[in-house]
Write a structure and sequence with these properties.
Helices cover 24% and strands 25% of the residues. The chain contains nine helices and 14 strands. The longest helix is centred in the first third of the chain and has 14 residues, at 79-92.
Length: 303
């Protein structure tokens, strides 16, 4: 198997490193700043294609020749990966398996029904697949890839590419309130310790003030206080933020298993012995509702 990783300005997308690991360290990096990104993979072999601005049609067409001999191609299920994968599958004339949580050449597991069901698939030939970010996990490493294992090829490989494609008009910074949870670097999560739906209105306001995304546990989305697209956990969205602040979340395994490996966890709860408090780098024993109100008050005029 080989990973195809769309790179923007030398930065891997969510799930990019996991996808390379799933493919045994073999990768093709395409985009901008690919050589710099490849050096931080930590091992394996890489092909870099410096292709500039994201263009899924042109990139798929350009990747057809380098990937012609690769039977199994895997992309991260990041926004760019999800855009590129179907175009690539069409160009290579292969079946596409989207939303996988485990991929081998002979067996693929696909998450379905919002993660409530797992479908087992036995591929009958070559395929393209996307791997959901955060489900595999990788061991942290400080090892740099050997420069001798990085090969660069020109874009487009083998000549020009002329296909219908998106036209980039402007690139805007993501809105933390609406961005994909899998891409969010900072998340404020709320659980059953927040006593009313109004508390989640306040949590959303606090998240906006802190330039963070707002999430919730399953018990809250089941109550209808927050949309299911904001549900964090193995039965919702698997995340991997740098900072996670949990307000009134006890820390059921279905929730904590979907947190990835945050650099920092802060938990606010009245129960000092609950699992979420044990996981936290900073545990604050207090009523989460009162803490949210106090933090908003610190911002002064909230209008």
């Amino acid at each position: 198997m080989i990973a195809v990783i769309p790179v923007r300005d030398g930065v891997f997308p969510a799930g990019g490193v996991e996808t390379v690991a799933e493919c045994g360290g073999r990768a093709v990096l395409i985009g901008s700043g690919t050589a710099a990104a490849a050096r931080h993979l930590g091992g394996g072999t890489a092909i870099t294609i410096e292709a500039g601005t994201f263009a899924p049609g042109g990139w798929a067409d350009a990747l057809a020749k380098p990937l012609a001999g690769e039977a199994h191609v895997v992309l991260p299920g990041s926004p760019d990966g999800r855009d590129l994968a179907p175009r690539l599958a069409a160009v290579l004339e292969r079946e596409l398996f989207a939303g996988a949580i485990s991929i081998t050449p002979t067996h693929i597991q696909l998450a379905r029904q919002g993660g409530l069901a797992i479908t087992d698939v036995i591929p009958t030939g070559s395929f393209v697949a996307t791997l959901q970010p955060g489900v595999r996990g990788v061991d942290p490493t400080t090892q740099s890839m050997d420069p001798d294992t990085i090969n660069s090829i020109d874009y487009p490989p083998g000549g020009s590419t002329d296909v219908a494609d998106v036209v980039l008009i402007e690139s805007l910074a993501p809105d933390a309130a609406t961005m994909d949870h899998a891409e969010s670097p900072r998340i404020l999560g709320g659980g059953a310790g927040l006593s009313t739906s109004e508390a989640f209105v306040q949590l959303a306001e606090l998240s906006e003030r802190l330039d963070a995304s707002m999430g919730a546990t399953r018990v809250i989305t089941d109550r209808g206080w927050v949309g299911h697209e904001r549900q964090i956990g193995t039965t919702g969205v698997v995340v991997d933020p740098s900072l996670y602040i949990a307000f009134g979340i006890s820390g059921a395994v279905q929730h904590t298993s979907g947190l990835g490996q945050p650099d920092h966890i802060i938990s606010v709860n009245t129960d000092p012995h609950c699992p979420m408090m044990q996981l936290a780098d900073l545990a604050i024993v207090s009523d989460a509702n009162a803490v949210i109100t106090a933090l908003l008050d610190r911002f002064g005029d909230r209008g």
